[in-house]
Design brief:
single chain; Rossmann fold; seven-stranded parallel beta sheet; globular; disordered N terminus; transmembrane helix; Peptidase_S8/S53_dom; signal; transmembrane; Peptidase_S8/S53_dom_sf
Amino acid sequence: MRAPARGAARVLSGAGLAAALLLPTAATVQAAPPVRPPAADGKGQELPGMPSALDPDAEETACTPASGEKAKKQDWSRQRLDLDRLHGHGTGAGVTVALIGTGVDPGAAGLEDRVTAAGAAADDCVGNGTFLAGLIAGSGGDTPRLAGLAPDAEILALRGTDERGQPSAELVTAALNEATGAGASVIAVAVALPDRDEALTEAVAEARREGAVVVAAATPDPPRTGTDEIPSRTYWPAGEPGVLSVADMLPNGARPDSALPTTGIDLAAPGAGVVSGGPRGDGHYLGAGASVATAYAAGAAAVVRAARPDDSADAVARRLTATAYPADIPQLDPYAAVTTVLGEPGGSAGAERAADPVTVRDTSAADRAADRATVFVVLGSAAVLAVLWAAFVLPRARARGWRPADGTAGD
């Protein structure tokens, strides 16, 4: 082979190999769907845990002590829910959220002047209710990035438990009736009961007739001891018709291994390694469980109600589920709930359109891009093979004077 021919062959071969390496990479860039940034997992937050209840068998009640630690950064849950962007579109101003749990301390850091709590509801020995109120409507105090989902909403604190955090159907029913009578726009039930109760069923139905969005924990917060072989069951009032049943999830979107099994979950929200305050002092705690997820869903409902005051309670609930991030259990996305256009504004029209998932998350453009990328790869690969074939065969044919090889040893 003459030197110019060999040089040309090397050039063609090099170009072909480079194209073979670059074409698939280019196609992958075009075809890959958008990737959500990885969520922080809460590591490095050296904070005490917030219990959902105290030991019911203890001879004396020792309330959860004040935390002497403060969070040093925004936790993964607020990043996952995109609260910094959400608060540019709504903060829940003018909406009252009734929180049924262990009570709320009206003077807790970040909640000043926005909590109404009468009688026993103003004494939160467990601390869980105050912790949840901070997730719903806390300002974050001197740590604004730890604000709640609806920092301008009002909290109506109601007791659904005894002093140690043990719930009962009678207390939850009375709290629901009081919330309905007070005209709360959103009612968050942070406890879950194992048995259905007729009076509780009627109290939920009445709250819904009066226009409240009712959000409830899909399961009780699991105890610290083992929960092996617990069968799946429905808990109440989350199982009542029209109630948004909310479960807790980890940063990867999965339910915790310790989560109690159940069915009929409408939404999943962050429920592990979540930071908030308590009723004593200005320190922070880490909380977990379905009650934490329920607080976040209630805050999202408050922001939507403030942004869309003419929407019915059913339309608000449907909006929260229709705009949720698609997964085995839809994952709460409050920013999408406030900003997504589902249909004509107002009432049931928005709720009907909310059932159409294509309106919310249309992936057809990404699918078409992937199809085009696939065609590009196939055609490009064929072209590369042709170039490589030419670089190998043509110089040999030229060396033989363009005569076909006869395959004999003498040749």
